Amino acid sequence: MIFFGILLVLVLIAQVAEFFIPPIRSLFNAHIYLAPLIVFYGAVVLPFPLMLALALYAGFLLDTLTVQVIGGKVEISLGWSILLYAVLAGVMHGLRPLFVRGRWEVHCIVAGLCTSAIILAQYLMITFRRGSISFTKEVWWQIGTPGLVAILVSPLVFYVLHWIARATNPALLERRRFDT
Amino acid sequence: MKRTNVIALLVLGAILGLLFNLGPGTTRDFQAKVYQLIAPLLTGGSGIAKQVTQVRSGLKSLEELEKDNNGLKVENRELRATNQALRDTEHEVNRLRHALQYKERSVFKLVPAEILARDASTWWHTATINRGKEDKIDNDMPVITDEGLVGKTTTASQNISIVLLVSDENCKVAASVEGTREQGIVQGERVTTGVTPVLNLNFLSKQANLQPGQKVYTSGVGGVFPSGLLIGTVKSFRVRELDGQAQLTPAVDLSRLEDVFVVTGMTKGR
Predict the structure, then answer these.
(1) Where are the beta strands (DSSP E) in chain A?
(2) I need a labelling partner for B9 at 20 to 30 A (CA). Which of A126, A138, B151, B162 fits?
(3) Rounded Cα–Cα distance for residues B61 and B87 (Å)
C-alpha cells in the first residue's frame, strides 16, 4: 500500500508537471506526457484491483484537468479517460509475467503505444463531437511523438519506479505473484 | 477470475456510470474543486518555471560574456551579473507599469491576472490564471491584454480559473472587419501546426475580398465579448463553396503570455 500511495503522489506530480513542460515546437507542438508511464508501470506490478484504482485516480485527474465545459455542454464527459486508462492498464497488466523475466523492452514499447493511444482516443472523441475528421501529417506527429518520447524515457522511469517498489514493497515483485 | 477482481470491476463500472451521467454544472464543480486543490502546486510550479527561465537567460549572457571578455576579472563578472539582475527587475517594472497604464485608460473593469500554466494537453488550448471567484471572476468572462483578445474563462474556482484561448477550436467569437461591413465568426484550429496559431474567420461573404493587414475586432454579438476588442489581422482570404474565409494572425502572442486582464464589466459612465 505504501508503494500504491507513492504512485498516487507521483501521478499527481507528473500531471501538474505536464503543465510546465513546453511542447516540442519543432515537432508540430507535440506534448510530453509522464503520468501515463507511471500508471502503466503501476499496472504491471500492482494487483488487479489496485491497478483499477490507479486507473480511476489517474483518469479522473486527467479528465478534470482537460475537460471543457462550454456553453452548458461538456465536450468529453468525465469518465472517458478512466475507461481508457483501465483498458490500457489492463493490457499492461497482462504482460506482467514478461516483466519479471526481465523483458522490459516489451513494456517500454507497449507503454509508448498506449500513451499515443490515449491521445488518439482523445482526438477521435473531439472529432466525433466537433465533426470533420482529418488525419494530417501534423495530427500524426502530435499523436506519435508523445509515444516515441515515452518509449525513450520509459526505461529510466521504470527503473526508478522499480527501485522504489523494491525498497517499499518487495513482495510486489516476487515471481510467484507474476506467474499467477 | 478472482472474486475481488470481479468486485473491483463492478465498482469501477458503477463509478463510471455515475460520472458519465454528470451534468455540465456538476462537472464544472468537480473541475473547479480539483483545480482549487492543485492550485498551490500550480502556483509553486509556475514560480519554479520562471526561476528556471531566468537562470537559463542568466547563463546565456554569462556564456556570451566569457566569449567576449575572456580576460576579465571575477569582480567584473560579478558586476555584470548584478547589472543583469537589475535589468530583469527594470523589465518587470516596465511591464507592470505598462499594464497599470492600460488598466487605468481602459473602458472596462479589469482584474489583472498572471498566467500560471498553459496548454497541458494536445488538443485543448487553455491557460490557468491566478484569479478566481474571490476576485469576482466568473465563467464566460473575456480575457484580454493591452494588445487584444486572449480568450474567455470557462471554469472559475476560488482563486484560480481556466481560460479558453482564442486559438482553441471551441472558442467562437463574433467578429467584424475594419473598414467593411463584413461580419463572421472567429474560431481557432483543431491542430496547431506552427509556433503562431492561426485563427479562421468564417461565414464571410464571397465578395469580401479582405486584404492582408486588415484588422478584425469583436462585434459584440453573442454577449460574452464586448465589441471593439482586437482579435487579429488578416493574413489571407479565400472563397469557399458557400462562404468566404479569412485566416488571421492573433493580435496577442499566445505563446508568450505573462499578464492578462479579465473583463468583469464596464467602467462607470461608459
Answers:
(1) 69-70, 73-74
(2) A126
(3) 12
Q: Which residue has the higher pLDDT, B268 or A18?
A: A18
- How many domains are there within chain A? 1
**Which grid coordinates are listed for A9?**
503522489
B258–chain A nearest CA distance, Å: 14
Question: Cα torsion for B37, B39, B41, B44, to the nearest 10°?
Answer: -160
At B174 the three-state DSSP class reads strand
- Of B42, B184, B67, nearest to B127 by C-alpha is B42
In a domain, A26, yes or no: no
Please answer yes or no on whether A20 and B2 come within 8 Å at the CB atom.
no
d(CA A42, CA A88): 12
Instruction: Report the chain A residue with the minimal C-alpha distance to residue B123.
Output: A123
- Distance from the A30 Cα atom to the nearest Cα atom in chain B, whole angstroms: 7
**Degrees, nearest 5: CA angle B20-B22-B26:** 145
Min Cα separation A34/chain B (Å): 11
Which residues of chain B make contact with A61, given a CB cutoff of 8 A?
A: 34
**Does A104 reach chain B within 8 Å, measured CB to CB?**
no
Mean pLDDT of B128-137: 92
For A59, nearest residue in chain B (alpha carbons): B16
In terms of DSSP H, where are the helices of chain A?
Answer: 2-20, 35-45, 48-66, 80-94, 96-100, 104-130, 137-168, 175-179
The minimum CA-CA distance between B77 and chain A, rounded to whole Å, is 31
| A78: in domain | yes
Q: Are B24 and A74 in contact (CB < 8 Å)?
A: yes
Question: Would A52 be classed as within a structural domain?
Answer: yes
Closest by CA to B131, choosing from B264, B268, B266, is B264
Nearest residue of chain B to residue A64 (CA atoms)? B31
Distance between CA atoms of residues B199 and B231, nearest Å: 9
Q: Which DSSP state fits A55?
A: H
The answer for residues whose C-beta is within 8 angstroms of residue B179's C-beta and 6 or more apart is: B214
List pLDDT tens digits, range A62-121. Answer: 999 888 888 778 888 889 999 999 999 999 998 888 887 777 888 899 999 999 999 999
- Whether residue A179 lies inside any domain: the answer is no
What is the Rg, in whole angstroms, of the alpha carbon atoms belonging to chain A? 17
How many other CB atoms sit within 10 Å of the CB of residue B233?
17
Domain that includes residue A155, residue range: 2-17+31-173
Q: Would an 8 Å CB–CB cutoff place A8 in contact with chain B?
A: no
Q: Which residue of B has its CA nearest to A47?
A: B5
Do residue B19 and residue A138 have CB atoms under 8 angstroms apart?
A: no
